[in-house]
Amino acid sequence: MTAGTKILRRMSALALSSTVATTAMVGVQFAVPELAQAAVVRSIQVSGNQRVEASTIRGFMQISPGQNVTEADQDEAVRRLFATGLFSDVRISQSGGTLTVQVDENQIVNQVLFQGNSKIKDEQLQAGVQTAPRGAFSKATVDADVQSIRDAYTSIGRSDAVVSSRTVPVGENRVNVVFDIQEGDRTGIETISFVGNNAFSDSRLKQVIALRESGLLSFIKRNDVYDESRLRADEETLRRFYFNRGYADFRIVSSVAELDEAQNAYFITVTVDEGERYAFGNVSIDSTVEGVDTATLQGEIETQSGDVYSAKKVEDTLVNLTNALANDGFAFAQVTPRGDRDFTNRTISVNYVIDQGPRAYVERIEIRGNTKTRDYVIRREFDVSEGDAFNQVLVQRAKQRLEDLGFFTKVSISTAPGAEPDRVIVIVDVEEKATGELSLGGGYTTGGESSGPVAEVGVTERNFLGRGQFIKVSAGFGQDTQSYNLSFTEPYFLGRRLAAGFDIYHTENTSGSYDIQRTGGDVRLAAPITEHLTAQVAYNYKQEKFGEDSGFGIRDINGLSPSDDGYISTLSTCGNPNPVGNQFNPDGSGATAPLYTDSPIINQAICDSPYITSSVSYTLTYNTLDNNNDPRSGFLVQAGQEFAGVGGDANFIKTTGKASYFKLLNEEYDVIGQLSGGAGNVSELGGDGLRVFDNFFKGQDIVRGFEYKGIGPRQYGVAIGGTNYANASAEATFPLPVVSRDLGFRGAIFADAGSLWGTDFAGEPGVEGDDAALRASAGVGVIWASPFGPLRVNYAHPFMKEDYDETQEFSFGFSSRF
User: Fold this and answer.
1) What CATH number corresponds to the domain at position 295?
2) Residue 365: other Cβ atoms inside 10 A
3) Per-residue pLDDT tens over the stretch 164-209
4) H or E segment at 54?
5) DSSP strand pairing (775-786 vs 436-445)
6) Which of 164, 213, 389, 643 is exposed most, by the fewest CB atoms within 10 A?
7) 318 CB contacts (<8 Å, ≥6 apart)?
8) Is residue 250 domain-resident?
């Protein structure tokens, strides 16, 4: 090949292979010329470029005048130019000392347009495609974007969406890229089937996973949208479900989602191998680390011999032991559970072995994916920080804490080598989700003087300004009531796990025998003592106004007009030295003792209006519930005291306590049992006696079937409250038969018993009911986990009551979320 021979270079492997193949077929023989020797390039000429400067193109080539250039150098230059994405074609030829580069520039994208979309907004689609205005047009990139848009529609349940692309020239080598979209119908899940399950029915397992079959409410809940990642997440949920119920050998054989295009629906089949059910055998601790006292660690063990095997209890024990060892100065101690299966007796003995782990330190914690949540909100969930000893158990506990925050749809933690062999980089990847909530609530109260509709609207943000703070503003309205509330909580006060917050409220109630207006609030601080025990202290302030002083005006107690005989108004009661219930002058000359209510005790309390209660309180909470929103097992116990007399008018001490125990009575039928109880006492401080409104007022909150303030001491039929109360309740809830569990309906049967008794006004005229007479009721209920929030309807029949009690057998209420 001579120096004057023109060499044409194109990046076309297909053309080259076709030529070779044709030559072989026809049997043509020719002499292959020797490769040209390197020639010195004295100048580089560029042609075909319109927007890209010639100097820029020469820079991309990395060939300079005066350089010896071979064919391989030219091929490499072509590859570099194509790699810029600026050119649709590149040709290089050499003639003597001149290297000629001819290019065809890619078109420039003027606009990216979406047509036919309504379910996904333009902004969302634009964020998911690579083609962008002012960028170079690439057919390969546009084709990839088409698939990305299809995937976006699949993720919202529209697998039959059709997406195509086209270009519209707009002059000056610019084009608009248009994506045409036919969104199609929603692709739901027709059936979810399980194969190989014997211990639990299909209906029970369907409640465990997040995916649901399409139903009447699917258009609201959107949990019938198939996504492979959601199916993988459900696989992990099933594993945890079985592992925590004794099935240590459980495995998922396969999970398949088949799309029936004719029905536009998925059919999901999950095949499982449950294995045998195990209990814990012997549980022990061994240590190879000098100085570790295994006897003192026994209290950290959550796994007990004879209990049903639970992977979660093993994990909790690992965390407890790791924290205890770290607190004792063994930062690098590593705890490993070693199980020994007894296949005959179906037990698993667990030996927690403590070894000296590798001396590795956390170089840094790298957080990715958070756009709203601030880094420090994520970092503070770690019990390890930069420079601390690396511990995998504590890292996994941090992952669980992050998931429990409810700020993220996905949390994953991985590690990478650090700058030194003993350094580890902890990488946290998160995917955020919406944390704001608009709630709408409503209900209807029946019976008594306050019957009628009630409604509530509220706005809640659980991650305020990305700081992890909780804030809620709400307002409630009823026929005779109004309420306004503001609540704020900082979960990490002063950089520690101290939850500090405040509440402000204002309520007005014009039902009953007298009007009442309350304005108050509290400032609180809560701190965890152990994993399950929390303590809270608070300062509370409340101002109460009653009757005429409340600003609600004058009321006609007797239902008469001023011109009627016996008319009694609330115009002036406190000036009467001896107000006695509902007296009037029968000769029609007017009321001799205008009263607020029929109860002189209540009237006297109203005369103290406005009344200020200033108090401090503390509460201890013990919580082992498996789920705070839908518990199936565990305890919730609360006890506390309130001391009034820190200024203000009230002087008392209130002691209250309540406890609930949940247990899954039948796994197969998902029957949940609950036992609850509570008690309280209020006593005077300072010797001034109790004001009537310092008492407890009880009713349906402890014994269903009675009105609020429906039981306890009364004077002339008006509730005056009691100084003591006690109650107990038993309830069982279960899925409603015949009704699909996917609809979220559950039935309930319950029995309540309780009493409110004791008063400092015993012996006063008209006072009754100050003894501890027992009230009891039994009833049924229907609970609906609706898309708008939990709804419950109860019917309770009081079968033990007093003649003066006020009953309300039917109750209904719900709260909504959007």
Assistant:
1) 3.10.20.310
2) 19
3) 999 998 887 888 999 999 887 777 888 999 999 998 888 889 888 8
4) helix 54-61
5) unpaired
6) 164
7) 335, 337, 352, 393
8) yes
